Fold this sequence. Notes:
- The structure holds two protein chains of two kinds.
- Helices cover 33% and strands 25% of the residues of chain A.
- Chain A has eight helices and ten strands.
- In chain A, the strands form two sheets. In chain A, strands 6-7-8-3-9-10 form a six-stranded mixed β-sheet, sandwiched between helices. Chain A has a four-stranded antiparallel β-sheet with strand order 2-1-4-5, with helices on one face.
- Chain A has two domains: 2-84 and 161-257, Rossmann fold, CATH 3.40.50; 95-159, no CATH class.
- The longest helix of chain A has 18 residues, at 174-191.
- By secondary structure, chain A is α/β, with parallel strands linked by helices.
- By secondary structure, chain B is mostly helical.
- Chain B has a single domain (59-250), classed as MetI-like fold (Orthogonal Bundle).
- In chain B, helix 3 (54-86) packs antiparallel against helix 4 (88-103) and helix 5 packs across helix 8.
- The mean pLDDT of chain B is 91.
- The interface between A and B is medium-sized, with 29 and 24 residues.
Amino acid sequence: MQNARAVAREIIAIRHLSKTYGRADGVVALSDIDCAIGDGEFLSIVGPSGCGKSTLLKILAGLMPASGGDALLNGTPIAGPRQDIGVVFQSPVLFPWRSVLGNVLLPVDVQRLGREKMTQRALDLLALVGLTGFEQRYPWELSGGMQQRAALVRALIHDPALLLMDEPFGALDALTREQMNVELQRIWMESRKTVVFITHSTSEAVFLGDRVMVMTPRPGKVGDLFEVDLPRPRSLDVMTTEKFGVYVRRIRKSLNAGGGLE
Amino acid sequence: MIGGPRNFALRLLLIAAFLLVWEGIVRLFQIPMFILPTPTNVFIAFYRGFESSLYIDHIWITVGETLIGFVLGTALAFLLGTAIALSRPVEYFLYPFVVMFQAMPKVALAPLIIVWFGLGLTSKVVNAALVAFFPLMVNTIVGLRSAEEDKVNLMKSLAASKAQIFWMLQLPNAMPYIFAGLEIAMIFALIGAIVAEFVGAQAGLGMLIQSMNFTMDVAGQFSVLLLLSMIGLALNWIVIAVRRRVLFWDASQKFNDEAAKKEAT
């Protein structure tokens, strides 16, 4: 079974990580986060608003320095933005003046990887998410779900070691969201990336994750960690099973215990 | 819905009625030509001005001053606006100057400009550039700073350099603002050139209006005013035509609405 791998080889090690906004006596967003993420693992992080999960993701993306402790990616501290990380934000963040293909090739342009070499890979990845035929279209001609798929391809184009996703499907309607979850699982199983996936939704977290990490708010701390022992590929039907329901209930309970859910 | 051939005909009819009423009133009350000419007089003056090629020479001079002033003024405005938008120290030290000049009616500088740069082409170009400068500089600053945080974060997360963030994100993102500024700057440049010609010039449409004023050729003045608004329209149209090509993507909202409609049906 998938999860028997557990944490085979650590790709990310987070040690005593903390973040305080403003001065030393400012708002504590993260306090003493400890966590290891295995190579190829899909880690879901759930927590209520203001639990610091977006802050954690920004630190992992190198967009924000930590106040204390450190986060290692493949053994080296994440001190600033790096080329081996792909990020998917809550909104697609596509540039309207670039075509879908142009948007997907943005990391290639920034990191000077050579468009000639990478265009075929871009087309393959676009095909993988079902965007064949839309390469020359512009973002505003696409639906919200298609835009987010393009954003996912953009995050994968430069073959990053780590994919960070910050509530990527939060703005989509429920049906599109479920569909995107199935697709993301498929892409993840094909690409074998390490994924850190932040969400509000407990069922999304369970459906996608190898493990689900619950964060508690004010200050943001690691609460409980759940191993999700459900066979892959998981279909949407898994959501109606007893086992799935048990996971969701346990995570809800953990969230509530942390004073999480309003 | 407004528009359609019927309303267009009504529009033309309204213009014709306006001209007829104008003509009628002037004739009925026998208003002297040097107070208010009839539309017929204006069109005759317009025709004669072109027939004698008097207008053509002056048009080229005024349009030339306007365009050179526009290019110089907006180029400088873009460079300075960019420096201010990207560098806090530059902004801090230049801010007092910017605020002072912004509040000042730039056309009031025209007499000084004539003293400094003479009666020829240079003073008109300088004045046009000066007046065209501010709308573009302000819009460049606002535009370059308008990039959404998520987009900046995306670029940063890819380890983009500051130069890459500027060329790949901030500049294209600022283009709608810059073009809005260019549209205003174009009309402002024409105003700047005309005002400078009023104050002191040997040629140009502004000078022509002045000299017609002295000879009480009011019909002639009206015809030059008509000409100026046509020039203004043409210059504005040039900017809009370029903008349509460059900013094809800025109609996003409209296209979005269309896409939503398609999906709904």
